[in-house]
Structures
1.
Amino acid sequence: MGSAAPSRAASVEPPLAALRLLLSALGLLLLGAGDCQLHTSCGIQKCTTDFVSFTSHLNTALEDFDLEFCKALRAYSVCTYRNSKVCRGNLVYHSAVLGIGDLMTQRNCTKDGPTSSTNPEMTYDPCNYSGHTEVREHQGGDKTPPPTYLFCGLFGDPHLRTFKDNFQTCKVEGSWPLIDNNYLSVQVTNVPVVPGSSATATNKITIIFKSYQDCTDQKVYQAVTDDLPAAFVDGTTSGGDGNTRNLHIVEKVSGKYIEMHARYIGTTVYIRQLGHYLTLAIRMPQELVMAYEESQDLQLCVNGCPSSERIDQSGNLPLPVVGKLLPWGAAAHPLSGYTLETATTKCHEKMLVKDIYFYSCVFDLLTTGDANFTAAAHSALQDVEALHPSKEHWHIFPRSGGPPVVCVIEGYRFFHAWKPRNVVSLCKMF
């Protein structure tokens, strides 16, 4: 028994020597990276610092050395995995990944199992995105800023609010990707609303929650007009462990309104049916929103609609005038039953603030005559208030500095006192 400890110490020297070599190499690489590394969002330096704090106090003579060392390696591995996209091409990151793999093989560490925590009460849960920051603070001791969340919404004819808070009105007939990153894909299908018009609205939404560690298998959700299910296409209502509810669907109003909560990626999705069409709102962490390949750059929520698909004029919504051609080549709907004044009154019943949601409501009523678009605009604003992280940015107002104005220009109406050169315009207060 007396010789057990020396023999054990000798047996762990190779992996510890490898560990020291790995950390020394990473330290040199971090120093050599200079400002180039400091200005990226790659978190490999924090991962390495945490790993050092987990292992610096370990004693090779203790019986639980292997257990604690493997826990620290797994925590290191999880941290590097979460940074895999933002650290793509980072030499320090790839060196760390290779070193972790070698050390786990040497110590016979399993990939699955508990991970280290400097606070026994603050264990790392890879399936709880909102808790990651708090755990990092306990592990590293440094104050970590909370994650930044972004909002995107689509409603009406259709109106798009991007993750950058840009507001656009688009045609985008057919199937288009709203989101397509390494964690989530959202695709919508839009169909014409009025015969002969390029204006469309959403009648189908498909969402793919991609498999993530042990938190959830891939789950697909699909909603179409008059079929807004409270389950994924496989019939389940949750992903992963049913007790932890890493991903689950909540039916708020049967057949009309559901919510999806994905705690492992800190993401919430609202889907509603109002009239014959669907609306969508989503809140997602910025670091996950931006985790996509170059080939995935066609994402309406990230980059907006292509210029050829835009109906609005740099954010200004053209109002149809009965009997005249719309700027995008369709006749105004003569049977809509709404004038500018009656549409304004109708929208003002639900929306007291004359922001872009109010103007979108007026635009949709004049274009389609469908009063359900009033409820869609109102619900879209409610979703903003529920999901958008910045209250001061809830309302988006017209770009003109003065009060909103409607101009009649060559048969078109615009929401601003916009007076192009060589065009006589007649404007009146809205």
Note: The CA atoms of residues 181 and 290 lie 7 Å apart.
2.
Amino acid sequence: MVKDVFQINLDTDVLYKLRDKVNEEQNISYNKTYGKHRAWDKICAIMDRLDDTVSFLNELKLNTGKYKRSAFDFYDFMNNASVIVDCVKELVKIFNVSDDKIKKSTNIFNQVGSDEKGTDERYFEYLRSLCSVHPVETSRHRRYQANEFECCPFVSWNNGEIWFNDDCDIYAVVYTSKDEDNFKRVRMYISQIFEYVKTRLNFVVEITNAIDQYQKQVISDLRNRPIKKEIKFDNYVDYLKNLDSEQCERYGSDRWFPFEHIIKLFELKLSHSENKIKMNLYLNALKYAITFEHNSLQNMSCEGFENNGLIYPQRNIGTTLYNELYSPHSGSEEQRRYHYNLEKVSYLSYDSGYSNKQWAYKQLDGAKIFLEKYVSFKGAKSDFEHYALVELALYLDCLENKCLINRNIPNDLKFRTRPLSDDEWKELLSINI
């Protein structure tokens, strides 16, 4: 007689929600520490292990009749189930979650042992040691042992061929090394073991909630820690360097628009006097936008005019005025025509290598018929100066087109080569973009 085939059904949704929550504020998760070390690598390893192990166990069928004496399928299950248990324990430690509810439970196996201090967790560890990890010497679970150590030659499915009238699903044969007692049988019920593994995996829900609270607390702490205002610094570049540091701490690798590039623009000495006058317009626009970006960093949000500087935002687009000015884009026909050229010019903004820079200059030459409407490349010296002039030209092009930048830059000569007339301004604002 072969009893029922067993197959666990573990909830995978709890793992999807865990990963989503960890990645929701990835920089905060990335900077979480565990002891003296960053916990990120361990968190990622745990999530991957949980995904794969849960999937494996959900597909594993037990008691199929394949194994007659040693239940290797059960060994497989116990070893991998222990991976799930250990992963949950580590997440509990990393995020400092109280797990007394599962750590002290006794209601699954109802095995408190000889000292009556046993728990479900301790009994599962005893079974795992006996059945699969330390079968030739299980010696660290005295409350469940019949002697100083126990040996387990095999674990067998209860198919009714040896012991009759026994309702257990599987049993471990145990040699006790006691003269008066040959062996004992440890009777096991798969429903109990399944329930134990499920309750441990489902505790991930509590951990996910704790991660959410941890992230909210970190964000609250950052919001309540004032970022130094411009007035606190001797010059604007030092102010930007501090903003860059704050941005890095708050968003880490998630930040798409670091201030390093902007700092270089403010430090740049242009070679041509006409370009200097026009560059001041662009830098003033950046300064205007950065006042809102300061708020955005302080509030950890880009929602609302206070944080994004957009009086007239674009529908269904999450951005800020600073982000738009970082690499101006008007969407004009000419910008689209020279899209490839302009993209490759970015090689001049960093150490991209000789070949890439030569290609960038070639593409720049191909786009000058458009760019020289706004700037002069005469006398330009460094790679970055050429790149900066392209960015300036793109900004000035935005001010001649119906785009997000033009709608949100104040109609003031501090930012523009000429102010828009009332009719031009009304027409610009009447266009839905």
Note: The chain has 19 helices and five strands.
3.
Amino acid sequence: MDSTVNSEESYDLGYEPSSSSVDQNDQSPTETPGFSIQSVDSFPYCRTNSEASGFSEATDENSSSETASPLIWPAMKSPRQAVLTRIGMMQNKVGDQDPLDLELEMMKERFSKLLLGEDMSGSGKGVCTAVTISNSITNLYASVFGQHLKLQPLHPEKRLMWKREMNCLLSVCDYIVELIPASQNLQDGTPVEVMTSGPRSDIYINLPALRKLDALLLEILESFEETEFWYAEQGSMSEKSTRSGSFRRVVQPQRAEEKWWLPVPCVPHGGLSEKARKHLRHKRDCANQIHKAAMAINSSVLTEMEIPDTYIASLPKSGRASVGDAIYRYMYTADKFSPEYLLDCLNLSTEHEALELADKVEASMYTWRRKACLSNSKSSWVMVKDLMSDTDRSDKNHVLAERAGCLLFCLKQRYPELSQTTLDTSKIQYNRDVGQAILESYSRVLEGLAFNIVAWIEDVVYVDKTMRNQDS
């Protein structure tokens, strides 16, 4: 196949045309394991909950998410939109062993798995496309970042795998559009209103933001290529250190039990230089802001998802019985409700206790909301007048629902690595909206990566402070 065809096909896949993009000696694997196996300490839909990707492949070094963003919506056609058409045209080229042809065949197989809902047997037992794409993004994240536990650049092959396969998965958003009214003039100058297609508003706003956060997180990892600190296995001695590698810090309350498999950061005698400490503080602040932004996007997407009927049917009849008498009395009798004070009094010691409380508070909140709606089931005009007045806000169920929402929000802020609640898991499981599934899973994995980076930086800062105090 001549160079002209190779250049055209590589551009359709999102590659920049170059000689390396058609390397005949490419030794990248052509098949990967099935779907992921969750780690021992993970919860369903946790931030990092698997170790192998069912949608991963080694990538060419020229693939990049910046070269062809799917959320750029000009009048011209997106380069990746030709990929699906080209895949269909390549069906008869079985004997051609060109690397790009093999690439197209692998992409065709991946999209077939997505369309069949992870069930290649054809028995119709697969899950819906939205859940399949959500699982694929989660598994890809775990495959790329699952074993990355240090402040250091991501391996080049892993980085290229992440970019290329995320581009492939996110390309689905190119076809999720909505009709927007627009004005158009006919040849005689008569203005008419027509409906034009454009990107759906939630995807148009959130997906570019998530892509930017993704790039910033990889940039933070790349900034630690040359560092004054290094890592040693837990309890071992580093080749550069004369001290025991046992400075592992309990960074957050939910890390009460030490995770022995995590590598331990080590610093030289006297600690890090002022320049290195300033760099750590700056990157920690950046990662913190990214974590908050990803968490906000994830929360907004989950809020927009429909509540499954199965969850509504499982709600308790009494919110008081769900949260318990002690919490109910404080929420109902306190003149000035303080969720932070209530959490301090509860003294939660494990992530399991925090997640259990979150499930109970969330169930009670929806129980009280439902009762508040039932109590206001009046005629339409009376209901409108009541909603516009302040009388409804004094309703007991309305007040309790608002306070339960505040308590749930503070609980998630205090335990940012908390697993998905029962409601969130149900929403993801029964969701049928592909766009929402992509935004939710993408924001969730970025939230987890940002949290991990902050924790790794906090570890190094703590070790540096400990070393300087010991030498002083």
Note: The radius of gyration is 26 Å.
4.
Amino acid sequence: MSPAPISQTAVTSTSVTPQVNTPTPAPKNFDDMFHTKFMHIIQEWKNDPTRGQLTQKDRKSFIETAYSETDDSFFGRRRLSDHEIKLQALTKVFYKVLAEEPWSEDWIRAPDVERKLSKFEMNKDTIALAADHGLLTPRDAVKAAREAALKHQEALKEHAKDPKKNVKDLKLSRGPYDEIEIIYIAGTVSSTATNKIDRENIYPVSVSSVANVLQNHICRDMVRPFSMAERFINCTDVSELEKMRKFACDVCDFAPHLLDNDNVSLLVVLLILPRSDCCKRFENNGIRVEGSTISHRKAECMKNKMGWNTSELKKPYDAFASEFQARVRNACNPAPRTRVNKVKPRKSVSMTPGMHGTPSAYSSPHMGYMAAPQVRTGSLPGVNGYSSPGPSASRPASAPRVRSSVGSSAAEPMDLS
């Protein structure tokens, strides 16, 4: 094949290529894509002349709409690996957490809520103290405790700016929130069953403890849920796994309302702790919640909150939960190392008399006639001056055994055998 002919009109000198303004590529990260879509929805809302005040319901709707569009663009229209399928399921959980903000006091129900739903009640021993501070419901008490804790933290930050001041000089009152207590009443099948629950056996918790768990919710400062999902999937650091387990345990002990079937925090906790551990912690606090109840709550939450109403849709979450629970368990409760005792091989010893070697467990048999050992008459019980045939027959069973060297006592002559 001959080379192509050179055109006579070709330009031999280097030509300058004109700069073209290329559009900015769309963000490849899920959270960046979500942020772009969410801000676009917010801008459209602002441009609407008929809009009203932005409500919590509007915010939740905007987040869910932006997430749905991002999920379709990021995960849709392509075949996903097992890793991506799990990542997609966890991302949906954490975006639901972002939309609903389960750490809000609004999730603490009123005392007169429907019988099937769980609730907090004021501990009868601290009702008077709470009433003196105008706190009549558990929700009001927890909210006040949380606000007081935030003011306390802000005061400490301001005080820390001046190194000359001593923290001890800063007199801050913690208020009555360590003494005001509430108890958790699990939902039952009837109001009669709820009334029969023995409140005396339920361990009360201070409202400051509940407020602390809500304030330090593992997702409260989360702004990138996709990154949070990646953090869970890729986490192998022992200290990080221990922090996650502590959060889950604190929820069971101090904020059990986060494990109700309408609170998506239930799915976060069940990623970390198995159902049996949650029930044990409930039982230790005097709260009776069966394992089947936890499973029912989980199924209801998956169906109503996540839209996972088939086993195929639930499978990615369940598969990773089992894997991650084992990872947490191995990190926080490692199995004890089995000690292997190495047995040294025993050297063979000749039993022939006169041969030197390593002594065996039993001495060689004596050869020939041997006289009986001389025993002092009267010093030891016996017949005809000889000791009794059994070594322990003449000694009472309760008599203590005194250990001494052989032949060190006149009553115990040296054995010459």
Note: Residues 80 and 87 are 10 Å apart (CA to CA).
